[in-house]
Amino acid sequence: MAIKNWHKSLEFTENVETYSNLGSLYFQLKQFDNAIEMYKKCVSLAPDNHIYWGSLADSLYFSNGDKTLANDNYLSAINLVENTLKINPNDIATLSAAAIYYARIGLKDKAIASMSKALDKAPNDIFILYEAAIVYQQLEDMARTIKYLKEALAKGYPSDLIQTAPEFEPLVKTEAFTNLFLPQT
Less CB within 10 Å around the terminal CB: N or C of the chain? Predict the structure, then answer.
């Protein structure tokens, strides 16, 4: 229903937030080709927004598409976050986003440094904890991935979003991941 309503609203006016909301919903539903189309619209309407470039790159990364094209979009996002961090090097959301982008293209040291800085500044922020899990999953560090997922869950991050996130699909059948969602005694 939400998809239909958002598409209907776009008939009246193009709106980057609506395209982004649709892209996010399609991404969560793992309809990556649809997400790609929505994020391409976002990038065309707001080319200076790293979030849209990163979301487009993530959609390309998780689709069966060209990883080189995903990397090109991550590089665009990285350029924008690095410019933002020159102005405000303490922006935790931008530091965290940068860490994800760096991890996706294999810049491990930069990813860890950026995420460490974000975690130092906001050690209890559930979104930063969740994104730390994404970074460490990308870097194939299972222990840290589980650690940050556990912390995010303990602080209230929705378990259904973790269980259905494409980033954590490789972990779904592991005991460590499954144990995160068992009742604690």
Answer: C
Return the residue matching tokens 């892209």: 23
Residues 146-173: tens digit of each pLDDT: 999 999 999 999 999 999 999 999 999 9
Amino acid letter for position 145: T
Written as one letter, the residue type at 173 is K
Whether pTM > 0.70 for this model: the answer is yes
pLDDT at 4: 65
Closest CA to 55 of 75, 78, 74: 74
Phi-psi region of 133 (alpha: psi -120 to 50; beta: other; left: phi over 0): alpha
Residue 17 falls inside a structural domain: yes
Do the beta carbons of residue 162 and residue 152 sit within 8 Å?
A: yes
CB within 8 Å of 39: residues ≥ 6 apart:
19, 20, 23, 52, 55, 56, 59
- Residues 11 and 183: their CA atoms lie apart, in Å, by 46
Q: How many domains does the chain have?
A: 1
Which residue range(s) make up the domain with 52? 1-74
